[in-house]
Structures are given as structure tokens and as C-alpha cells.
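Appendix C: a fully annotated inverse folding record. The material below is reproduced so that readers can follow the format used throughout the book. The structure is listed first as C-alpha cells, followed by the designed sequence.
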């Protein structure tokens, strides 16, 4: 700090403003990551239920059913993923 009280007040105000901006940004990011975590946990539960329904051997069953899938990535789907990720940081 300096001997100029006006300058000191400006530094204090600026510091508080920057601190609030960092806190706001941190809170926003935390909310976004919490939302993503909830979605991932829900997906994990759904996958577990699907595995239980499809791949668990039932009494008297000798062969487990085979499941095969193909996934196609399109330009539109990549854009949606990119936009969703970028929106997290805005």
C-alpha cells in the first residue's frame, strides 16, 4: 500500500472485485461439475441395471446372450458434444 488513501482504496476495491469474480467462477464451475457427476452416476446405475438384465446368468441358463452394437459418430453429434463442453466454461 502507499501513502495515498485514494489509491489504497482503489487497490482494496479492485482486490475485492477480483476475489468476487473468482468466487463466482468457481461456484459456476462447481455447479457444472456437480451436474455432470450426477449424470455420470445416473448413467452408471443404468449401465449396471442393463448388465444385470442382460449379462447375469439366471438359474438353469447355460449360455449368456451376446449383445452387439455399432456406434456412429456424426458431424452433428461431435458439434453437440463440443458445444456442451464449451458451455461448461462460459
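Designed amino acids, in order:
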Amino acid at each position: 500500500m502507499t501513502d495515498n488513501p485514494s489509491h489504497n482504496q482503489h487497490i482494496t476495491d479492485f482486490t475485492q472485485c477480483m476475489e468476487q469474480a473468482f468466487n463466482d467462477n468457481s461456484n459456476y464451475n462447481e455447479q457444472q461439475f456437480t451436474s455432470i457427476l450426477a449424470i455420470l452416476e445416473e448413467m452408471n446405475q443404468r449401465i449396471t441395471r442393463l448388465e444385470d438384465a442382460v449379462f447375469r446368468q439366471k438359474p438353469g441358463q447355460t449360455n449368456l446372450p451376446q449383445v452387439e452394437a455399432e456406434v456412429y459418430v456424426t458431424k452433428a453429434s461431435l458439434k453437440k458434444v463440443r458445444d456442451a463442453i464449451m458451455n461448461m466454461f462460459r
